[in-house]
């Protein structure tokens, strides 16, 4: 099987879980989704015993951030309601889906940000979706447990120690976008993990959010008592030190409360093989274990502050080192799940 077909089969069989006799609606973004790729997906649906209906929609206007998606037209809503499964290479927002279909429709929607054959031939797309999903669930629901000690670091000098807290405002906001009948084929960043008692420093290597533009002379954010208190750096980093200091000052002034710059949460990716994608399609790279970033203040705001080659320790055990799972990290539940999926190993 060609790599692109492996990725497509993973989408159809492991994420959408297309079964014999099911009606499968393929929604595609005109001008973005590759027509040959859509034919491969249709073929894979037929191979699984499904019946496909292919729909092309105009490319919607971009903007508004990750949660934003265009409204769902009546025609599209009717098509979705009449399907058993939807595979969408088009931005379908969970919130818009709920508004249109209610909380508990009988359809399963598999979304993906992938649009090209190259995307589907990637390590990210070819890694068993069910396993990737199990890894996220294991960490989000069990391993990132309140009260565990955490260390976030990297070779550039980031070194933060803290304790996992009970409430992340950023997670609460994101939760509004998650619905049980919708799955994302490309893995996301994990649910933001609340922090308390963070101490240390974060060396900011990338700016501009998920676009991840490298900073030539990284500034260092100092964290004391779970609050970002100041920004430091050598003289050549002055531009960036000033910019990040301004960011903290402005938030402190705008919110006018002592916890204006508290560390709300952090997150990164958990997908064992996903490539680190930057640039305009950098949201896809959120799956990668290399990167992490913070959310700040009582409103859980994003801070354009990422660092790579992540080291993540939980209660002193190294989970991720230099941006990849540590060879000695061995989770019995994940090992068991991998066996159930017929995989020799999961990382
Ligand atoms: Fe984030």
Overall description:
This protein has 347 residues and is α+β, with helices and mostly antiparallel strands. It has two domains: 3-126, 3-Layer(aba) Sandwich (Rossmann fold), CATH 3.40.50; 129-340, no CATH class. The protein has ten helices and 18 strands. The chain has helices at residues 3-15, 35-47, 74-81, 94-101, 117-120, 123-126, 129-143, 169-175, 238-255, 332-340; strands at 23-29, 51-57, 85-89, 108-111, 149-153, 159-164, 182-184, 193-203, 206-207, 213-214, 220-224, 227-232, 263-268, 292-296, 301-307, 311-314, 317-321, 324-325. The strands form three sheets. Strands 5, 6, 8, 11, 12, 13, 14, 15, 16, 17 and 18 form an eleven-stranded antiparallel sheet that branches. A hairpin with a 2-residue loop joins strand 17 (317-321) and strand 18. Helix 1 (3-15) crosses helix 2 (35-47). The protein is globular and about 60 Å long. It starts with a helix and ends in a 7-residue tail after the last helix. Fe (ii) ion binds next to strand 14.
